[in-house]
Amino acid sequence: MGAPLDSGIYLASRSPRRRELLAQIGIRYRLLLFRARAGREADVDEDPLPGEQPAAYVERVARIKADAGWASLQSRNLPRAPVLAADTTVAVEGRILVKPVDRANAMEMLRLLSGRRHEVLTAIALKHDDWMESALSVSEVTFKALSDDEIRQYAGSGECDDKAGAYAIQGRAARFIVELRGSYSGVMGLPLYETAQLLDRAGSPRERRYP
């Protein structure tokens, strides 16, 4: 087994947004990347189970990713440190919207979100040895009514690719949002309050930043 990782954690995610958000709150991290099939991480099956509710689904997947990250760390004999993983999904009246398989699927999702409120759920999981803890952030987002042209143009921009619910709040889709109740960072993919609380409970070191 490797020696402890000096002052930090592993981030088991390919998302550049999650990297930016961790850096924003001064968390030192090292990327823990896996071999991945297109749009998938660490051989994790992200398909919802029959009848699975959105909150149960997203937390289950986050925990599976953390487990996979820890297994990868051990198999590669990397220095030991907590492994942080996350998963985000969008839900409309209990229907889970995962990442679109193609642009046509993205347009279908955007039409479903048009002019209505939906939930964005992000779960985080932190694992170290036999210990694991997870947390869930649920936010409500309301879209304006979208025209067919807006949907086509947005889908054509490519920003919807590989995004749960086929949109990115930090990008061009910001102009579609009438109201947000909850965590902006959670909608981006990593709820910072919940993440900081989880890391604090685990005793993970945080980088000091001075003005």
Question: What does this entry look like structurally?
Answer:
By secondary structure, the protein is of the alpha/beta class. Helix content is 32%, strand content 23%. The chain is elongated, with a radius of gyration of 17 Å. 40% of the residues are buried. The N terminus and C terminus are likely disordered.
Question: Which properties best describe this structure?
Answer:
single chain; 32% helix; seven-stranded mixed β-sheet
Helix proportion of residues, in percent?
Answer: 25-40%
Backbone CA Rg: 17 Å
Number of helices: 6
What's the number of extended β-strand segments? 7
Distance between the termini: 38 Å
Shape call: elongated
Structural class: alpha/beta
Q: What share of residues are in beta strands?
A: 15-25%
The succession of helices and strands, N to C, reads: EHEHEEHEEHEHH
Mean pLDDT: 89
Low-pLDDT sequence parts: 1-5, 36-42, 204-211
Largest sheet: 7 strands, mixed
Task: Give the SSE map.
Elements: E1 9-11, H1 16-24, E2 29-31, H2 54-75, E3 83-92, E4 95-97, H3 103-113, E5 117-128, E6 131-143, H4 148-157, E7 177-181, H5 184-188, H6 192-202
Parallel strand pairs: 1-2, 1-3
Antiparallel strand pairs: 3-4, 3-5, 5-6, 6-7
